[in-house]
Amino acid sequence: MKHRSIRVATTGVAIAALTTGLLAGCSSADSGGGEGGEQTLRVTLANHVWTDIVKDKISEFEEAHEGVTVEVTQLGEDQLSDQYNVKLNAGTDEIDVMMYRPLQEGKLFAQNGYLADLSDYVTQDAEWDWDDFQSGPVEATTFDGAVVGVPIITEQEVLYYRTDVLESLGIAVPSTLEELEAASKQIKEQGQIAGFVARTGVSAAVTQFSSFLFSEGGDFANKDYTKATIDSDEAKAAYELYGRLIGQYGPDNVSTDMSWPDAAALFAQGQVAFYTDASSLYQNLALEENSTVWDKVGYAPFPSGKAGSVPYNVPSWALGINNDSSKKDLSFEFVKWLTSPEMTLEVQTAGVPAARASVWSDPQGTASFPEQLAEAISIGSETGFGYDRPLVINVAEAREIVGAPIVEAITGGDVDAAIAKAQADFQAFLDDENS
């Protein structure tokens, strides 16, 4: 057994033990190897349960690739961003494979030339099957027509609901946004619990609001992001609906600074009947140690609006290759191994939602998820968009701009004026980014 080199910079979460072996293909030769064919592949990964699962299996890759040592640096999100900003900007070749957030920094990295073009790589191996990856996540890891990353972890917005409350009131599970509003109103008027909750913070709410926006037929901007479109009739309908659901049918005196932990806690404490948020949060609601209603949680696809059910279906993380790496062939061989159908199935079996369509149609792949949730995720994966926030470089500033009307709608303010200001501000923002 060859010893593998694992350098961990920060402590991750608990390591999940997996036992099934994998076969790895042979890599092609790269420049940059050591004497005698020895090569060190430098891999930077985020603190995540996905990382803790796969890093325990890296010795298998090394054993199948004689002379290769994989050196892993594992960092928290902030440390990861800091390292990338410094090293990639300096043109380092000390990073080969990199775990990154496509919707947070993907456009910046691709535009700056940090990410290698993988378009030819992903089409070379029919057995690895690039076509098996869901279209939404693939869209999010493609820049100007070039594939720059392979999605590894996904999430979709779904509808969580209280099965006991709906049953006692004779309410059917809402399949449309109109039905969701009617049911939320009915429950709120009963006076026992609130009808609906979701994130309310200016920035935090944007990702969850996006599914309402898409499903009503709206978007943040036109396709090439030269024109802001948040003042369209469709966007206005989405802002107003999201605001009514929380402001009129949500908890009394609801905070306008809630991110997911706050909103999820209200549902988990039995104070709300409906909650829309990421599929990845379900254990906060469905495990007895986290929730007082753990055995009364139902799951459904995101309700349809005028444009159908169009939730976000996004890759929270992807793998890319440093464009300045001297080992691109070996790096992609490693990426391909990490994202093979077999490895992806193993990771999803451990509870990490994956970007391959095949694992969602495999009973083994869905066994660790509640049956209703797996079905909702599968549906959302087919109909969803591959982004949940504006596709810009300065994501944080954009979210603050487009999120302002959400708070105004929740508090019952002048939504038209808030939208008009946000439209003007976002157009100026886009003009500046495109200049």
TrEMBL record:
PROSITE patterns: PROKAR_LIPOPROTEIN. Coiled coil: none annotated. InterPro entries: Bact_solute-bd_prot1, SBP. Gene3D superfamilies: Periplasmic binding protein-like II. CDD domains: PBP2_TMBP_like. Residues 1-29 form the signal peptide. This is Multiple sugar transport system substrate-binding protein. It comes from Microbacterium pseudoresistens.
